[in-house]
Amino acid sequence: MKFWYSNSIIAYFLLPFSCLFWLISRVRYALFKLGILKSYRAPVPVVIVGNLSVGGNGKTPVVVWLVQQLQARGLKCGVISRGYGSQSKVYPLLVSAETDPIQGGDEPVLIAKRTGVPVCISANRQDAIELLLKQQHCDVIISDDGLQHYKLQRDIEIVVMDAKRALGNGFVLPAGPLRETAARLASVDLVITNGGENQYTDAVMTLVPNYAINLVSHKKCLLKDFKQASALAGIGNPQRFFDMLQGLGIQLTQAQAFQDHQQFSAQQLSQFNDNEPLLMTEKDAVKCGQFAQQNWWYVPVDADISGQKATALLDKIEQIAKGK
């Protein structure tokens, strides 16, 4: 909603509903904290990678980065996800790199492709963890999203935030984009801002693109070799992807934004020019492989997250996982 990120009068008309949303969420949070509502404690440490606001903030690159960093420290990781957009008839569902993204969801399939670790999806996080641990030993479970899923106890909480959009107008739903107020940030372990710093930053994430990969031939090509192209993005913040490409000197003749988790078809993408490259995100590419064209390319990005607080958090997770 555009009015979430501006000083719009619409937000003030919706404030009574936001007050009700806030009250219900605080009561629910208190009931879990007091133990009146039951929550699940996993037998291994759980790390939540979530956000306060709705929409794309960059959680998936953080999950991939976190898995890779912990693997480098000798820890075995598993990932759970709600699997938003998946259409499986059975849950919990183990997701691999070969899973149909319609069944497993685009983000879980992408995480499985990039990390090679077991991924399990279910709206019931306990079921997902239990199935995951039956299949493979894990030292750490990473939850893609779920900051507000208080049925699952957690050891570490990481919040990912878009540096520019931040917390929008600061209101909770529906007047603003927030699921919880900014005060919640005081209780999390790390705030990662995507694309720069703001007043909440503990660590900055930069998404680093180096090359594009052809969906048909799997050939790699440096992005600096693309002078002109079309682009599409079905992610939470498509403009970030378009800005990134233009910042690399690529002239976009067409930039088409789709809704997050968009399911694509060959007919739907026939609007794009066959005579020039079509660039898309890696998340979109996992859904286009079966009908890909020779001129379609996806742009993988790697998260660069550095700083003393990020390193200290990795040390803390390692210590918890190893029981030190």
Structure description:
By secondary structure, the protein is α/β, with parallel strands linked by helices. The protein is built from 9 helices and 15 strands. The strands form 2 sheets. A 9-stranded mixed sheet has the order 3-4-2-5-1-6-7-8-15, sandwiched between helices. A hairpin with a 5-residue loop joins strand 9 (211-214) and strand 10 (220-222). The longest helix is centred in the first third of the chain and has 19 residues, at 15-33.
On the 0 to 100 scale, the average pLDDT is: 94
What count of helical segments does DSSP give? Answer: 9
The first-to-last residue Cα distance is: 45 Å
Number of strands: 15
Strand order of the largest sheet: 3-4-2-5-1-6-7-8-15
Largest sheet: 9 strands, mixed
How much β-strand is present in the residues? 15-25%
- Radius of gyration (Å): 20 Å
How would you describe the shape?
globular
Weakly predicted, low-confidence segments: none
Helix fraction by DSSP (H/I, runs of at least 4): 25-40%
Q: Provide the succession of SSEs.
A: HHEHEEHHEHEEEEEEEHEEHEEH
Structural class comes to alpha/beta
Pfam families: LpxK (PF02606)
Function: Transfers the gamma-phosphate of ATP to the 4'-position of a tetraacyldisaccharide 1-phosphate intermediate (termed DS-1-P) to form tetraacyldisaccharide 1,4'-bis-phosphate (lipid IVA).
EC number: 2.7.1.130
Keywords: ATP-binding, Kinase, Lipid A biosynthesis, Lipid biosynthesis, Lipid metabolism, Membrane, Nucleotide-binding, Transferase, Transmembrane, Transmembrane helix
